[in-house]
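Researcher: Quick sanity check before group meeting.
Model: Go ahead. Protein one:
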Amino acid sequence: MTSLNRIAILAAAVAAVPIAAAAAQGGGMTASGTLVGPANAQRGTVMVTDAPTGVLVRIEASGMTPGWHAIHFHEKGVCSDQGFKASGAHVHRGKAAPVHGLLNPAAKDSGDLPNIYVGADGTAQAEVFSTLVSLRGAGKRPALADADGSALVVHANADDYKSQPIGGAGDRIACAVIK
């Protein structure tokens, strides 16, 4: 890992401390799930904590392929099928097809999240914040903990944050039901 990557991770961690502390003090609702890979092999955990303006997501993973991987919130809390296709499309508002990409000016995809980095040892620990969703629908943001739940999906490749439909993220390689 380069010094620049370490600085970026440290800066993200320092910025997340007040958010995590506020959620803990304010009793922010939390949902969690087990991250599974092919053949339902356990790959880690996901914890989502509601915050006043979005959600804080903590991911701890192991047994993964090293490198950058896209992560997205998917619309259904189902991770039981091969390839995790039953988790559906990305979480989004309304009935119109979402426009993908955190760097796309026309984006309307509430399931978009920043990429995570898996180290050479196959492990990743990350905290990311999303203002695009909530656990229960606060602020008219899509609810992750709705009637059919949602899933956090890890993809084989990095998201380029622009191209359609999923930023070149590739196959779904791990999945966690958010409940």
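Researcher: Fine. The other one?
Model: Protein two, sequence then structure:
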Amino acid sequence: MLSSVGPKIYSTPGGLATAVLRREHEAAMRVLNLLDRAVIRLKGKREISPFFFEQVVDFLEIYIGCAHHAKEEEILFPYLKEKSIEVDKIPIDTIHQDHEEEHRLVRQLEIGFELFKLKEPSGAELLIEVAGIYTHIARRHILKENSLFMLADERLSPDDQIYLRARFDLLERNKLYEGTPERLKELVNELERQAFHWE
């Protein structure tokens, strides 16, 4: 699996801080769609490589868990709270709870693919069960956050966005090896290539 800790990485140049997070949501949605298709194959007893699930877990643990969620939890959300920016009926604390649940489910997915790799029947069963829960929670969660980002775009100044973007870039440099975001973005393309011939 990819390592998530290291000295240096380069970020995508330009753009608002919230736009960075939206692009990461778009990548996540592509992976969720593939995970849904993989579950259909598992239910139909069709062949699928355990490596596919390992790659999905890598993406969810590193790109989403280590980088994306950290940008929100450590930088954006505290900044929005400081400025009293919050969407009615979507308190930031509930978004944090979603993150915790997603992390728990990703750990279960990892157990599932390890069992699946060993050809244990319980591995496929666990992947089917957990992936269905995860994709449902993650899609609902993305909608919540996108609503919050829309409000942030209305209330944050250009200087706020520049400041947040700089903090995001620094976080990536501190948390990820150089080139990791680029490899993870390419990983989404690779997953889609693997799924291209699925019926």
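Researcher: One line on it for the slide.
Model: Residues 1-13 have pLDDT under 50 and may be disordered.
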